[in-house]
Specification:
This protein is of the alpha/beta class. The chain folds into two domains: about 110 residues, Rossmann fold (3-Layer(aba) Sandwich); about 110 residues, Rossmann fold, CATH 3.40.50.1860. The longest helix is centred in the first third of the chain and has 18 residues.
Length: about 230
């Protein structure tokens, strides 16, 4: 696991992988998980400066350390790095389980046709989620620009610093409800692995949250248990 992006979601990933593995194989012991915790501030600085080649180098080098440690496959415990995922996968000698592919497969299996997208500003502005969901026949709707700016600021200043404030939760839920009412979204993709830590179990009866951490973890456990997966990048 490439983690540290940020630390709280990495802890959530680790706990969730262990819990799901043991739930699905009660007498199967524990999976071996190798974690390489990278410097999130360094990664954000590269994103802010548009230094995607440097980010690719940073993530690819981090993945290579996992390979040297004996990993059979890898994954990145975050959504935003998918800006360079294809290149990191190309340079990796082991397959990578994609959080975006897993989320698209999950939404398609639910029969969804129109969903919203929350995440960092980088993720909400990028094309990797809309393109992957479009291939699955699903329209993806972004928040308004002012809403994207608000979510991004709260994400960087609060969520990545382990601050989960009730007033932030209330405001973000109101954006979700507006998108339901005005844009007609059927569900909302929480495409930032800190967002579930703020919003998990906060869905309303008429809008479902697609928790990308939970979805990704299930795909990872599929691979750990030797099941055929369609979520490699």
């Amino acid at each position: 696991m490439i983690g540290g992006l940020g630390p709280e979601s990495t802890i959530d990933y680790y706990r969730s992988i262990i819990a799901r593995f043991r739930a699905r194989r009660p007498n199967g012991g524990y999976p071996q998980v190798i974690i390489n915790s990278l410097d999130i501030d360094k990664g954000i600085a590269m994103l802010d400066a548009g230094r995607l080649d440097d980010l690719t180098d940073y993530l690819a080098a981090g993945m290579e350390l996992l390979v040297r440690a004996g990993a059979d496959f890898g994954f990145i415990a975050a959504n935003t790095p998918h800006l360079v995922f294809d290149e990191v996968q190309r340079r990796s000698s082991i397959p990578l389980v994609s959080i975006v592919c897993a989320s698209s497969d999950y939404a398609k299996a639910l029969g969804l046709k129109k969903v919203g997208l929350f995440g960092t500003g980088f993720t909400m502005q990028a094309s990797f989620y809309p393109e992957e969901f479009q291939r699955a026949g699903i329209t993806l709707v972004r928040p308004k620009e002012s809403e994207r700016e608000f979510i991004h600021r709260k994400y960087i200043d609060e969520l990545l610093n382990n601050r989960f404030l009730p007033e932030t939760k209330t405001e973000i839920l109101s954006i979700a409800q507006r998108m339901k009412n005005e844009d007609g979204i059927e569900a909302l993709v929480l495409a930032g692995t800190e967002l579930p830590l703020l919003l998990r179990d906060s869905g309303t009866p008429d809008i479902e949250f697609l928790d990308t951490t939970v979805i990704h973890v299930e795909a990872i456990v599929d691979v750990l248990l030797g099941r055929t997966a369609h979520t490699f990048g």
